[in-house]
Amino acid sequence: MYSTGKIAYEPLPLPAREEKSDAQMLEAAQAFHALMKTRHTIRDFSDRPVDAEVIRECIAAAGLAPSGANHQPWHFSAIAAPALKAQIRAAAEAEEEKFYAGGAGDEWLQALEPIGTGVDKPHLEEAPWLIVIFAQRYGLTEDGVRYKNYYVPESVGIATGFLITALHNAGLSCLTHTPNPMRFLNELCDRPEHEKPVMILAVGHPSPTATIPAVAKIKKPLDDILTMLT
């Protein structure tokens, strides 16, 4: 993380290194692949509560993600308060109304049709937790001095992937939600102007009647997303 003082480079031995045989590596890779194949985005959440400590641990895992110059340019606002979730839903739906009324354009709306999305976002109240992810476009020292952050979108994107994976590993489901624009989240979450909200994650357990769109099961073949240059 950023420091106002000079910190000299100091190499440390790689900690917690676990050696695996080739067979063990393949087995671990296959097991993780199998785990991630069970991850699905949902919109129907149960009213089963989620302990705050689970959310804290998942966000702690996200905070371990690599980042430009190790500045860790992110902040996570975890929200369980019903009144605040209702405010977020109302503000998000106001933006969605403009989006679906033509702001998105015909091509975008056509692309969304198989996903089954719309203006109504009940999951923003039904999910026991909302996690709002903020990207810090620049940092501020305790004295209010601005400093530059590096590779902010890339760093926050990696941390978000860590978080989604940690939530799934803990047995939870989530939905990525990106109303546009999202500046209303700064005020509602009491976050400073230099932080840009990039995503809301609705987090919880799926309802017994939760469904996913059939198109969500259609993934690009490995050969379409991978080039092996050996």
TrEMBL record:
Pfam families: Nitroreductase
Keyword Iron: no
Occurrences of domain Nitroreductase (ranges): 37-205
UniProt feature coiled coil, ranges: none
GO molecular function, one term: oxidoreductase activity
Claim: Acyltransferase is one of the keywords in the record: no
Keywords, sorted A to Z: Flavoprotein, FMN, Oxidoreductase
Position of the signal peptide: none
Name used for this protein in its record: Nitroreductase
Organism: Pseudooceanicola antarcticus
